[in-house]
Amino acid sequence: MRVEQIAVFLENKSGRLAEITSILAENNINIRALAVADTADFGILRLIVDKVDEAETALKEKGFTVGKTMVIAVEVPDRTGGLAEVLDCVQKIGLNVEYMYAFVNKTGENAVLIFRFDDMTRAINSLQENGFTILESSQVYNL
Amino acid sequence: MIWDQNEQMASGDLAELQLDRLQKIVGRVATHVPFYRNKFKEDKFDPASLISLDDIRRLPFTTKQDLRNNYPYGMFAVPLRDVVRIHSSSGTTGMATVVGYTQNDIDTWSNLIARILTAAGVSTHDVIQIAFGYGLFTGGFGLHYGAEKLGASVIPISAGNTRRQIQIMQDFKTTALVCTPSYALKIADVMMDQGINPNGLSLKFGLFGAEPWSEKMRQEISERLGILATDNYGLSEVMGPGVAGECEHCNGLHVNEDHFLLEILDPATLEPVKPGEVGELVITTLIKEAFPVVRYRTRDLTRLLPEPCPCGRTFRRIERITGRTDDMLIIKGVNVFPTQIESILFDIEGTQPHYNLIIEREHNEDKVTVMIEVVESIFFDEMKKQRTMVDHIKKRLASELGVGVHVKLVEERSLERFNGKGARVIDRREL
């Protein structure tokens, strides 16, 4: 039910993102989803990849600061209001979203929402009770 | 004007007075300060064998570390009931130093400040605005009591709030300004922004200290504020301001030699430098009661200016402080040691962090940026936590160093690796 996400510390200077994607490419690692949070000084890059441990090792070897975090992936139909339904539910239950990002899977039928909640267990249970599909990690890595 | 007659003592008389006072103070520390008693014993130094001023070279040195080791009251030579004032340097336990004053010390101190104010042109007719911080730092209170002793009208405005400083300067018709030299330029900048012409003010004199500056800065201050800008020197370990100050000739600082015995030594060999050469200033206090120090190594570099001064004072002059023999930084007038920053970061991160310290002067104000390499223990995937961590580091550093800093996180292994501690510091200030 939980998906491992990699977070990388980035200084705001040119070429750093390209460097990371090249390292991953060289190691035959596929990026499934990606999001950047940034401030004036630095950024945090969050990545879902197919080979988490390899990605972590490769990036650390090149001197990046890497953290691993558990997130959950919620699948919703790719149509108007898809995201709104999930967020509506999240708000009613009273879950706190630390951050989220989204991507559309290859077939284009479904969107996948990546969430980090303050209370992950409660989030998983509540979302499932409300009929949302939470993807297994293997499903996400191989999307 | 000269404040008191001692300032014009003949050199023979001065030497006699110094020896007499030195003998007494050495006897007193041997009796009342265990640190010195033990040192004298170790060195087999008998206070009674001190019969000439040259004998000072047989006495042990006192370092800042010695003062730290005896935190808080270990170096006091009188019981606390006789102490009426306590000042301290910034820093945590183990880094800070504490000094004390008896009522006599405060009176002496006030008198020495009155000398320096007089030498700088200030008199009983002046309105003096003291824009040094009032508090544990010796600058504010030191100048304050001296200015009252002199009979000037004192405005104890303390540091900061530049617009208010200028408002008061206009309304109260301030004639003398006391602050750090960089703050004087900052005041001039803000005046310019506000469209205030300094010539319309009543300012005549400026006494500047607590941080290094240059002849170029003096000229700029003099021209922009239209004042006689003089330098004064002191350090809390020895007394605070009042150790030395310039007269109207602005050509080196007269040392109050009847109260402080000075030596200029080669910091490597600890032997006296040749006359007129640059070396470390070493000071022995001659009549302080609560906190006497013997051969205190100031780590400040200067040289003696042997020529007599046309002002008529016989006390010898030292050149403005040209540097330090250790890694101490003076930021906005506050003494900061890089090791302080190191230990605070260690506390927070739990590991020895890599950091650089960048000091710049922007708009006549010191700006310090601590660049810290992010390691896993302080890296979060959540922006909120990451920002909170930066704020936390910033607050800890500001409260323990006594000066505000910027904190910038940088990637691992992105900072230069230097050899030696002081080299983590990149000082880009041009004075």
Tell me about this structure.
The complex is a heterodimer of chains A (143) and B (431). Chain A is built from 5 helices and 7 strands, in the order βαββαβαββαβα. With 143 residues, chain A is of the alpha+beta class. Chain A folds into 2 domains: 67 residues, VC0802-like, CATH 3.30.2130; 72 residues, VC0802-like. In chain A, strands 1, 2, 3, 4, 5, 6 and 7 form a 7-stranded antiparallel β-sheet that branches. In chain A, strand 5 and strand 6 form a beta hairpin. The longest helix of chain A is centred in the middle third of the chain and has 12 residues. The two termini of chain A are 15 Å apart. The model of chain A has no long low-confidence stretch (mean pLDDT 91). Chain B has 431 residues and is an alpha/beta fold. Chain B has 2 domains: 326 residues, ANL, N-terminal domain (Rossmann fold), CATH 3.40.50.12780; 94 residues, ANL, C-terminal domain (GMP Synthetase, Chain A, domain 3, 2-Layer Sandwich). In chain B, 31% of the residues lie in helices and 23% in strands. Chain B has 10 helices and 21 strands. In chain B, the strands form 5 sheets. Chain B has a 9-stranded mixed β-sheet. Chain B is globular. The mean pLDDT of chain B is 93.
